Structures are given as C-alpha cells and as structure tokens.
Amino acid sequence: MTLFSQSNLKEMAISCGAKITEAKNDIEYFDYPFKHIVIDGIFPDELAEICHENFPEPNIYDWEYSNNEDIEIKYRTNWKSEFDIPEGIVDAVRILNSSIVIKALANRIDIPKLVPDPYFTGGGLNATMPGGLLDVHVDGNYHDATGLNRRLNVLVYLNKGWQSEWGGEFCAYDNKGKHCVKKIAPLFNRLVAFDSHDFSFHGLPDPIAFPSGEFRKSIILYYYTLQPRHKNQIAVNEPHSALWVKRNLTDKHGKKNRNFF
To answer: Where are the domains of the chain?
Structure first.
C-alpha cells in the first residue's frame, strides 16, 4: 500500500523530470568540478513532509553503522529490495527510480541508458549523527549483482531548519581530492545528482555539529550503465570500493581493487 495513487505518483514523476530537464546552466546544472545538478523543491511539499515524518530514528531501526573514525561515521540502511523500504519513503524512491526521472537525468547529465539498482547496494537512507563525518573519497565503480558500472549518484536531503553552523554540506573537490571547490547545503527537499567516477571527489570531512535531537538525513540512490565510464574518468580499471584520500586512495582495507563476483 502506498500513500498516493498511481496517477498522483506519475504526475509527481513528470514534475520531477521536468525540473531536471529544465535545470538552468550555472544555476542548477554545473560542469565543474564534475557534472552535477542541484534542484530545490524536487518533490511536492506533501511528499517531502511525509518522507521527513517517516524517516526512521537511528536508535529504532535496523541500520548498518560505520565507525571508521578517520573516514566514515554514519548510519545507512541495508535494503535488499523495495519491500524493505519504510512506508512513507517508498513513494519517493519509486519516483526517483521511475523511467521518467531516469530519462531526464540521463539526458541532462549526458549518461545514456541509465538503469536503477533494484538491489539497493549501498543505496537507501543515510543518517549522520552529531560528530559524524564522511571523508573525501570517490565511490566504488562496479555492481556485483549485475556486472554494471556505477555512473550516477542521486541524493535528496531532508533536513528541516538546517543552519550553516550545523555543517554537513556536500563538499565537491578538485580532481585530485585536495581542494574543496564547492559546498552544497543539505537543505530540506533539495536534490543533488552527480556524475560518479574516479575523479569526482566528494565528502563531508568535518564532523557535523547538528544540535541535540537532530541528525543529517538523506535518501541516496545509485544508477548504472552497461557502458563503462569514459577513459578520462578511470584511474583504476578493476572493480574497486570507495577510495579514500586519507588512505592514499585505497579502500578501507588498504587495497586499490577488490574481489568481485
């Protein structure tokens, strides 16, 4: 059971797709330091409010907890299929994974033939508590379940009343991961989509200072293609996990590559 009818959801998807398609150059769509889109009010107010109200608290939900003090302190969901998605969140995910929205993303960022991830590998909800962080890194490149190449990340932030002193901005870095060239505030109902490759360094490296009782909330989904990344977007040819600047561009285990299936 969903909270909206099929026709309601289709209308919402069409509206989201139009906002992405019409993203204005250098206002909502950017090429530097890597292709990305920033759109406020991506969902209708009612849907965004429902997502916020139904976003689970870290202490009452089955989260995965990462606690690598120098590079990653956060909670994330471990969904295996769409049936694991909480009521109140599932409609938003359906919209973001709809062909209507995916076609708009593919056309605007110029990554043809995108597909979503029905396995939600690494995707879902993220919760970062006060003191949490995510150091500068590039994301993994390969999807074990399908053999596809990761190409696009989409985030929707759900942080009502966010203040700049709270921190937690999405930080985009130069192609060496050394200098932050842009900070994007994690505002309520803001979509950020970006081209994911071996030089799209990003993170929130400073521990966040959200007030007591608040935590940083986001929906994160990943999209894939059969076609590999362009040669100028590849630093490591073999499948790899997230590669961290603080780990000399290796993964959490000190490796460039990883085993895959």
So the answer is: 6-247
Task: Concatenate the DSSP letters of all residues of 154-169 into one string.
Answer: EEEE--TT--GGG---
Euclidean distance between CA atoms 117 and 221, whole angstroms: 8
Q: Are 149 and 171 in contact (CB under 8 A)?
A: no
pLDDT of residue 2: 55
Which two three-digit tokens encode residue 149?
Answer: 């190449």
Say yes or no: domain 6-247 is CATH 2.60.120.620: yes
Residues 205-252: tens digit of each pLDDT: 999 999 999 999 999 999 999 999 999 999 999 999 999 999 999 999
Q: Which stretches of 188-252 are assigned E, i.e. beta strand?
A: 190-195, 202-204, 216-225, 243-244
The neighbour count for residue 211, using CB atoms within 10 Å, is 11
* Backbone torsions φ then ψ of 201, nearest 5 degrees: -75, 135
- For residues 118-122, give the mean pLDDT: 96
